[in-house]
Amino acid sequence: MTGARVLKKSRSELRAPVRVHQAPGHHGCTAACHGPWTLIEAGVIEGRTLTSFPSIRTGLRNAGADVVDQDVAVDGNPTTSRSPDDLTVICATIGASFASNSTQEEVMA
């Protein structure tokens, strides 16, 4: 079973934890590839800038996200990436954000 199928099957169970990590004072969450499906289900993407695997971008737009095609999108909270091919960049971005209270411009530089 692919990661996308597992995520689709279990994403409803992730709604509450995702909402908790979107609250002020939390570091947030990271969603890669098809992971933003969970953010749609949690109702936390309206007005956010996100990226994802191409096949779910229409769903993100329909849920109110501003979708970009770049390796990583940081919109405060959450951080998203397109695919496993972008793991090096997203891991570096996450590390930088945890190491400091950097702005998006500083993290992406």
**Helix content estimate:** 40-55%
| Intertermini distance | 37 Å
Shape: globular
Arithmetic mean of pLDDT: 76
What strand line-up does the widest sheet have?
1-5-4
The DSSP helix count reads: 6
- Total number of beta strands: 5
Q: Identify low-pLDDT runs.
A: none
Give me the strand/helix succession. Answer: HHEHEHEEEHH
Major sheet characteristics: 3 strands, mixed
Which structural class matches the secondary elements? Answer: alpha/beta
Rg is 13 Å
Strand content: 5-15%
Reconstruct the topology from this structure:
Layout: H1 3-10, H2 15-22, E1 30-32, H3 36-42, E2 49-50, H4 57-62, E3 66-67, E4 72-74, E5 79-81, H5 87-99, H6 104-108
Parallel strand pairs: 1-5, 2-3
Antiparallel strand pairs: 4-5
Helix pairs in contact: 2-3
Characterize the structure shown:
The protein is α/β, with parallel strands linked by helices and 109 residues long. It has 6 helices and 5 strands; from the N terminus they run ααβαβαβββαα. A 3-stranded mixed beta sheet has the order 1-5-4, with helices on both faces. It has a two-stranded parallel ribbon with strand order 2-3. Helix 4 links the parallel strand 2 and strand 3. Helix 2 crosses helix 3. The longest helix is centred in the C-terminal third of the chain and has 13 residues. The radius of gyration is 13 Å and the shape is globular.
Which terms would index this structure?
globular; 3-stranded mixed sheet; 6 helices; two-stranded parallel ribbon; 109 residues
